[in-house]
Amino acid sequence: MSDIIQLLPDHVANQIAAGEVVQRPASVVKELLENAIDAGAETITLLLKDAGKTLIQVIDDGKGMSTTDARLCFERHATSKIKEAQDLFNLNTKGFRGEALASIAAIAHVELKTKQATEDVGTCVKIEGSTVVSQEVVNSAKGTSIAVKNLFYNIPARRNFLKSDTVETRHIIDEFQRVALAHPAIAFILHHNGNEVYHLKSSNLRKRIVGIFGGKTNEKLVPIEEHTDILTIKGFVAKPEFAKKKRGEQFFFVNDRFIKSSYLNHAVVNAFEGLLDNNAHPSYFLYLQVPPNSIDINIHPTKTEIKFDNEKNVYAILRATVKHSLGQYNVAPVLDFNRDATLDTPYDFKDKQTVSTPKIIVDPTFNPFKTESGTINHNSNSRSGVLNKNSNPPQNYKKDTGSWEALYADIQPIEPVKQEQLFDVEKENETGKTFQIQKKYILSSIKSGVVLIHQSLAHQRILYEEFLHNITVQEASSQQLLFPVSISFTKSDIEMIYSIKSDLESTGFVFNEFTKEGVVIGGIPTSITESQITLILEQLLDDIKLEVPDASFSHFDIMAKSFAKSLAIKTGTSLTVKEQENLVNNLFSCKEPNTSPFGKATFKTLPLSEIDSIFNK
Ligand code: ADP
Ligand code: MG
């Protein structure tokens, strides 16, 4: 038989790579802004037309490119930022893959004008679908201007998949804000369809935050600062009274790069413990500096997730620092330091007798995702994937003995709180401590009264956090199907699944084939069963179509919500005592147990005092 393998032509390879780099106009904005920053620009202007669908132009006054580089920059793996693999461990630029411009040029009409300060004239390169159309000498100012027109003009499926202008603009503004917040010293200007949206002068961090979020923000900010051997933290948190009902302004930057981290978010939320109303999300703008070789930013193609070498220490320091600042600025007059808050449950501790001198506990071993039996594991035989989880509450506390003691010399770790106390579920009465009511609620006795849990909403929360965790933190685990399953979908749905294929794969789905009529699935996440595949995918497609502007994060968030909604045990399902207990314990091991992924309350506590008052009228 003749040979059948051939190398993909460059323009095809570029188009495939573009699928990873460019999901929507906002991805182009991010890449271009970052290139301008890497070029040392002092002022960066972003011009948009039609939410970036017609035009995205970034103009900078950075170092510009030589005539040869102006052509070379569109080649795949063409970068001036790293020379050898070793450099990857010492990155101080935004880009390094040398993929962005090649990818963008593969799927749009691009016009580059650039001039170096030392040259008299500049270069203009026009390139369409990876083909250079012209290259000529032009008069231009020092710096670079890149105009990206008609994004996805040659991939109609992607273009059709773009959301309304409102939604796409929102995504662009999110990226713009992140970049502008990370670089307060650089001036940023944004125009959309000829209107000025932002004009941010070079300034300091506080002024930049106010410039973006408005004058009233100023009075809300509590400064945060801490220097340690392994990291420096600076920035602001908003006072608790300004916490938002919807997850609002939450920004982490690591080495001037915006990152998403549910793990670090947990540390901050934890520091606010006791200061926030149920369901409220604190705002924060936190800047972490760590040695570049102690993080791996390479684990995600669009680089918003990050891996720290010593994330438990980072967690502990961050939490202690925020807590300390809240205390210092008198916003936390009654902070309860007498226990390790990393172990808190939302139960009411205020009746506790012991009050000791304020202490901050640094617990570098804490990992909210660890259960006593190790990391969360799914059981594919279980109806829910969660109910069989180890029923004990997390036991993460280990006394700190590491080098952090030196840092917080005046702070003594306290003895671990006993588990019963911690979890506060009454142990004297081992059996029958939970009851199911109307196959809908679970009633559980706690020291300070009772807690009433909505089984379905609570389960949604548990599943949501597990999925999110599995997608973003762990390698997704997949179970191979003995016989691949074919599922029919409409053309547009197939296109949509295709466009989120890589996201789905990171949850554990394996796609063997995309046909005209549907998809053939060879593997599924371990947490679901074969019979649930269709339901889950259909629900997901619905949810993605309905995506609203403030839909929190990426597709991952929508996926996790959607999966949680599809898989959560429903009202009307009766649960064994063991299942009830697991549900209760797993709920209170969640990062945000108070609400379902959709913001509904998952439980309500009825303190004894309230119960008493019913009968003492
Ligand atoms: P990366 O940023 O990963 O190196 P890109 O494809 O984004 O890859 O850019 C390729 C190269 O083009 C960069 O390494 C840089 O040398 C050059 N470049 C891109 N944008 C600019 C700019 N605005 N000013 C100067 N040089 C630029
Ligand atoms: Mg780049």
Automatic annotation (TrEMBL):
Keywords of this entry: DNA damage, DNA repair, Endonuclease, Hydrolase, Nuclease
Annotated SUPFAM superfamilies: ATPase domain of HSP90 chaperone/DNA topoisomerase II/histidine kinase, DNA mismatch repair protein MutL, Ribosomal protein S5 domain 2-like
Record GO terms (molecular function): endonuclease activity
CDD domains: HATPase_MutL-MLH-PMS-like, MutL_Trans
MutL C-terminal dimerisation domain boundaries: 433-575
Family per record: Belongs to the DNA mismatch repair MutL/HexB family.
Name of the protein described by the UniProt record: DNA mismatch repair protein MutL
Gene: mutL
